[in-house]
């Protein structure tokens, strides 16, 4: 049997960005040959000299790749239909390249567009935590998440583009 390289030891969301680009290119070339892998998982990728090698083509099928978008890190996740290729969309999602539209807080997913104050996050704290260290921990986590979201908005939109609703005294405390 021919040497196919070392197994990929990391999940897709922990890959070095340069290697992730190489993997996306390899899958794109495969799609360019008119095939889809069908079961693309880290265990189906080998590494030879920092080059990804796809293996295990039992689930491969004929495929005309309709990819119509570039992968731009940090942008909002498009739908698979907008992206144009379900397998590539799934891979990029698992690589965690795109910006999530939601924040995870406690056991909830909160849409970023609905958050304009720390209170918008804190309202998701379960009412059973009326006192105690768990409620305090969640309040601190809410404050941290809100500050991170504010930083992200200022870096993404620029201070002159951030809406009046967002620019409040608590944001300026983040950037002294």
TrEMBL record:
SUPFAM superfamilies noted in UniProt: Protein kinase-like (PK-like)
Protein name per the record: Protein kinase domain-containing protein
Organism: Mycena belliarum
């Amino acid at each position: 049997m021919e040497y196919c390289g070392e197994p990929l030891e990391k999940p897709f969301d922990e890959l070095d960005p340069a290697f992730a680009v190489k993997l996306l290119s390899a899958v794109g070339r495969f799609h360019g040959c008119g095939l889809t892998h069908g079961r693309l998982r880290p265990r189906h990728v080998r590494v030879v000299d920092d080059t990804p090698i796809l293996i295990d083509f039992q689930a491969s099928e004929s495929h005309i790749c309709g990819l119509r978008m570039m992968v731009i890190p940090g942008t909002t996740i498009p739908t698979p239909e907008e992206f144009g290729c379900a397998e590539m969309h799934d891979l990029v999602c698992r690589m965690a390249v795109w910006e999530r539209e939601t924040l995870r807080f406690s056991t909830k997913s909160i849409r970023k567009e609905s958050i304009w104050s720390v209170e918008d996050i804190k309202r998701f704290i379960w009412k059973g935590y009326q006192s105690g260290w768990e409620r305090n921990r969640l309040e601190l986590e809410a404050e941290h998440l809100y500050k991170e979201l504010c930083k992200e908005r200022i870096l993404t939109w620029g201070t002159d583009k951030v809406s009046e609703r967002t620019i409040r005294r608590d944001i300026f405390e983040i950037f002294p």
